[in-house]
Amino acid sequence: MNIILSNADPVKLKTACLVVPVASQKKLTGCTAELDAAASGAIRDILKQGDLENKLGASVMLQQLPGIAAKRVLLLSCGDKAVDAQGFDKLADAMAKALDNPAIKDAASCMTEVDVTDRNPDWKARSLSQALVANGYRFDLHKSSKAEKAHLTKLTIHNGDRKLNKAMETGIARGIAIANGMQTARDLGNMAPNVCTPTYLAKHARDLKKTHKSLKVSVLNEAQMEKLNMGALLSVSAGSEEPATLISMEYKGGKPGQKPVVLVGKGITFDTGGISIKPSAGMDEMKFDMCGAASVFGVMRSVAELGLPINVVGVVAAAENMPGGKATKPGDIVTSMSGKTVEILNTDAEGRLVLCDALTYISKYKPDVVIDIATLTGAVIIALGHHTTGMMSNTDELADELYQAGADAGDRCWRLPIWQDYQNQLASNFADLPNIGGRAAGSITAGCFLSRFAEDYKWAHLDIAGVAWKQGGAKGATGRPVPLLMEFILKRC
Ligand code: BES
Ligand code: MN
Ligand code: ZN
């Protein structure tokens, strides 16, 4: 997608479709008013007829208005309330959907004229760009007849103030890079689990390094993990023919010596539950159990594309959870890399087992903060539904930073407590701790388990089981929480 800025008069813009906002049906302003004047009041007449619903995101496509160079004009309603950031994101999405038309190969947009509470023009340029690229997403890797490519290939964003060009260009670059990161996350998530294995994820990391020389990639195999005493991680892949991999991607854009942001992704490429096997209905969805890892790959891509001045390390703990003759059994006790012993009471609580060793391993990067991202518990869907990521942290400042990043990126998370009362649910008669803490507060006790391996640094955990993919007709990975994590990183740059 080619997205450019233009300071030209919108009346004279030659394009297949010009998108303009209607903030008030009674009084037109800005570009919309200029177009209306050039077209001798044609827009006002159409509004008077009642063709445009007074609802945020409603639109009407006008053809061949007199006096206007654009072939079409799309009127996009802002509704009758002040537009906030979430509202503008909705408008951007509505614009992208309305422009998805085989006849429209290029378009221009005056939507940055909309007043948005607490948001400047570069943010608006970013929102429009991100929505446009994200809406062009297709996944046809496994189909023999390929989906049609997105028709739209070029968008011109109108900017009435040249002084803002530079900031808005940055906004556009960020929007495109975030959408590209989401694309990576969605592609990996949507891939069939017989293709997207731990070995495949390691190859993906090496491929990412080929495109982005700024990345350093290393992959540990099972023998190397054994040497590091990663008994918890290896207990998960024990029942599978697919060997586990531990993938590290280092991006150094910050000052030498600057402590990195470390992201750790759960990369269970398929979760059968192991010996504590899951029911078969809907089990195919457990291919999405690597969406935490996928978001780490997505963020590494976005960060490298933008060349951000910050140090980021992405680590992916990849394994397949299968039953088998060598599989871990309920009651087995394993020793983690930290030295802590874990009684595995349920082999379906495997995410925390791969993550705990990864959390110990990454201390070698001397992290500033560590964020793990995981489709960790079904319970988080009961708590927060499919709208919001569950967040837990051992540091209030980090929790606040993540909350704000989610709110600003339109990719929200909400904090859950990991108080001592919950920690007490993790009690084992036979080992240092069990891998489950009972039915009550299942997402929280999972977070508590992880916190025991993250005591030496500032840490947060994002449980994305509810937000990482959609079910039903629109089944597929969403690319979340790439926008949240990118907002977090951009704010730190
Ligand atoms: N990958 C699942 C979590 C999950 C379940 C995500 C459903 C999305 C939808 C995880 O490995 C798991 O199986 N968790 C168990 C934990 C339990 C055994 C304590 C769960 O949530 O049931
Ligand atoms: Mn599981
Ligand atoms: Zn799982």
Which labels suit this protein?
single chain; 493 residues; alpha/beta; Leucine Aminopeptidase, subunit E, domain 1; Aminopeptidase; 2 domains; eight-stranded mixed β-sheet; six-stranded mixed β-sheet; 15 helices; 34% helix; binds ligand BES; binds manganese (II) ion; binds zinc ion
Q: In words, what does this structure look like?
A:
The protein has 493 residues and is an alpha/beta fold. 34% of the residues lie in helices and 20% in strands. It has two domains: 2-159, Leucine Aminopeptidase, subunit E, domain 1, CATH 3.40.220; 180-492, 3-Layer(aba) Sandwich (Aminopeptidase), CATH 3.40.630.10. Strands 7-8-10-9-13-17-14-15 form an eight-stranded mixed beta sheet, sandwiched between helices. A six-stranded mixed beta sheet has the order 1-6-5-2-4-3, with helices on one face. Strands 11-12-16 form a three-stranded mixed beta sheet. β3 (59-63) and β4 (72-77) form a beta hairpin. α3 (85-98) packs across α4 and α4 (121-135) packs parallel to α5. The radius of gyration is 25 Å and the shape is elongated. The protein starts with a strand and ends with a helix. The protein binds ligand BES, manganese (II) ion and zinc ion. Manganese (II) ion binds next to loops.
